[in-house]
Amino acid sequence: GACYKGQSDVFKNYMRRSVDIEMLDGWGRTALHHACNGGHLKIVKKLVEKMSNIDLSDNEGHTPLFEACANMRSDIINFLLQTGRVDPYKKFTIGIFWMGNMDSDFDGSPKTLPILMLKYKKPRVVCIFIKNKCIDIDEKILKGKTLFEIACIKGYYEIADSLIANNTVDVNKQFLRPLDVPIPAVRCAHE
Predict the structure, then answer these.
(1) Residue 162, Cβ neighbours under 10 Å: how many?
(2) Residue 15: per-residue pLDDT
(3) Which of 13, 23, 142, 172 is deepest in the core (most CB within 10 A)?
């Protein structure tokens, strides 16, 4: 509870008493899962410093990085990716509770976190993965299209701009085949 609520004084007391911070709760979550979910970067940093495995999956298959992404905790996502101790290419499936905010064009097959966040309409999270160079830009994610193509087709210009700005995509190469979308609908970073 202290990690989720950001109660740093309670957390410090636990740390002084040598509480097992890698202990799992009834859902298979660690204190790090809860701190990431709650958005408490200072506690996340302390836990990462002390924990041997920061990429553990809970009973639903969710990692601390997944929790940070699902709750749009940008600073925590950046921090976890920069540690080099999480797998940004791990694939996840999502339970039924997420279905309300889903882009219906995507199927339910396992996806990497950036693609899941695109599926669940969280383009800012995708941009964090792009900035940290933790994304497979050539992965065919929907009907044989790449992330850049999907971003342009669906109007996720923030993602398209981020891919271009981070030199992750060659616009000329990407548009050699038809996009199934009128070209005026596609905006580029340099316009």
Answers:
(1) 24
(2) 63
(3) 142
Q: How far apart are CA 46 and CA 140, in angstroms?
A: 37
DSSP string, 65-106: HHHHHHTT-HHHHHHHHHHT-S-TT-EE---GGGGGG--TTS
pLDDT at 5 over 50: yes
0.85 exceeded by pTM? no
pLDDT in tens, 124-181: 999 999 999 998 887 777 778 888 888 888 899 999 999 888 877 766 665 544 444 4
**Angle of the 147-154 helix axis to the 157-165 helix axis, nearest 10:** 140
Report the C-alpha gap between 121 and 83 in whole angstroms: 26
The Cα 13–Cα 156 span in angstroms is 44
Contact between 51 and 82 (Cβ < 8 Å): no
Cα distances (Å, whole numbers) of residue 65 to 36, 40, 103: 7, 13, 21
Contact (CB, 8 A) for 86 and 55:
yes
